[in-house]
Amino acid sequence: MTYSFGVFYAEFLTYFNEGKGKTAWIVSILVGVTLSSGPISSSFVNRWGCRTVTVAGALLSAVCVVLSALANNVNTLIITIGVGTGVGFGLIYLPAIVSVTVWFERYRSLATGIAVCGSGLGTFLFAPITSALISNYGWRGAMAIIGALILNCIPLGLMFRPVPERPRTPVTEPMLPKVDNNNKKKLQRSQSIEHFLRVNGKDDVARLTLSQPALNKHQEQKMGSRHGSGIMQRPDVLYQGSMTSISRYRAASIDRKMTKEEEQEEKCAWLPCSREFKVALSEMLDVSLLVDPVFLLFSVSNFLTSIGFYIPYVYTVPMSEKLGIENPPYLISIIGASNLVGRIILGYISDKPWVNRLLAYNICLTIAGISTAAAMFCWEFWGLAMYATAFGFTIGAYVGLTSVVLVDLLGLEKLTNAFGLLLLFQGIASLIGPPFAGWLYDTYQSYSPGFYVAGGTISLSGIILFLIPVFERRNNRWKNQEMVLEQI
C-alpha cells in the first residue's frame, strides 16, 4: 500500500484540491511513523512475541485505513493514514523480518531476500488493483476494500511460530583466540574468512542460535520476566546476511550482558514504561556511534537516500498523467516487479566470497539515482518503463544490503545500535522528500525538479560511500602510529 500510494495521491489531488506539498505529507508521515516505531515494536516483540504484535498491528492499521474512507479533508488523512496506519504497519513489518532472521542461519540472506521481496510483489499487484478499485468504487470504496485486505495479516501473523530450542550438551567456556584490538575495526570481507572458536578441543563455527535461546531463557529467569521471548536481545536479530559469513563473534558473559542492560535501563529511568522498552530504546538510540567517522558517513548516505527514495513512488503516476501516458499505474508495477527480482538476487549473491558488498551497495545506489534524474528525459511509456526497471532493481540494495554492510563496517555487536540510529535518520528524511518535491511542483509547475532532487540525493548517497576505504586506511595508520608510540 505504501509503495503504490501514488495512485491514491493522484486521486487526492483532484478530490481535495490541496497543494501537492501538503497532500504528500500523508505518505511522508506514514513512512516516517512506520520507521520510527521500531523501538516500540521491538519492545512489544520482546514482551509478547512476533505473533501477537503482528495481529495487533494488522487490526490497528486495518481499522485506520477503513476510517480513512470517511475522511473529508487532508488533515484527517494525515492522522488516520499517516499516524494510525503508520504505527500499525510498524508493528507488522519488524516482526515479519525478525521471524525470518531467527529461523535461518546459513541461508538467511536468501530467505530474507525472499521475505522482503513481498513488498515488491505487493507493489506490482497493488498499483493496478488500486487503480481498478478507484475506477469502480471511488477512492473511498477502494480505501475500505484495501483496509479489509490488510486483515489478511491476521491469519498470516498467527502462522508465525517461535524457534524451537535444539537439544544441547553442556558447553564449557570457549577459549577465544587473541584478537588484535588495533585491527578489529579494519574493513574486511566478513564472508571470506571464517572465524573458528576452540570448544572442547574441536573446531566449530560460532553459531548464535545454538546458545542464544538458553541465554535468553536464563536472562528472563534472572530478570523475573513472565512475558515474551526476549528475541530482540539477540545481537544478530536485525542482521539479514548468512551467519556463516560472520568472520568473528565474541560471546559476552551473562553477567556482563546484564550489567550492560542495567546501565541502559538507567539512562531511560525517567520514562513511564516497561523495563524492556527502556532497554530497547536506550540501545537503539545510543549516540556513542556518532563519533565514528565511518558510521557518520554511512548515516549521511542513508539520510540522502531516504530523502529521494519515496519521491518516484509518489510522483511517477501524476507525472505520467501530465505527460498524457496511458496506464501510469503500470509503471509502479514495473518498479515493484524489478524490485522483487533485485532483492532476491542481491540477497543471494551478497554472501558469495567474490562479492564486495560495500562496492555493490555503492554502485546500486549510484545507478538508482542517475536513472531517476534521467527519467525526466523520457516522454513515452517505454522510456519510463526502462527507468522503472533500473530504479526498482538497484534500489533493492537499500533494503537488502544495509544491515550486512553495517556488520562488515562496524561488527555484529554494534548492529542494533547502528540500525536504530539509521531508522531515526531514515524516518526524518522520509518526512522531507515527498513534501519538498510537491512544494517544488507548486513553485515551478513541473515534476522535473523533484525527480532531479531525488536522483541527486540517491546518487550522491552512493558516491560518498566510496570514501569509506579512505577513512579506514587513515584510521589504521593512526592506530599503527599510536601503537608504535606506546611501545616506545
From TrEMBL:
Q: Which domain of life is it from?
A: Eukaryota
A Pfam family of this chain? MFS_1
Q: Where in the cell is it found?
A: Membrane
TM region(s), chain numbering: 24-45, 52-71, 77-98, 110-129, 141-160, 294-315, 327-346, 358-379, 385-407, 419-439, 451-471
* Record keywords: Membrane, Transmembrane, Transmembrane helix
- The Major facilitator superfamily (MFS) profile domain extends over 1-474
Q: Does the keyword Glycoprotein apply?
A: no
Q: Which SUPFAM superfamilies match?
A: MFS general substrate transporter
Q: Name one GO molecular function term.
A: monocarboxylic acid transmembrane transporter activity
What are the record's GO terms for cellular component?
Answer: membrane
How does the record say this protein sits in the membrane? Answer: Multi-pass membrane protein
Descriptive protein name = Major facilitator superfamily (MFS) profile domain-containing protein
What is the source species?
Answer: Pieris macdunnoughi
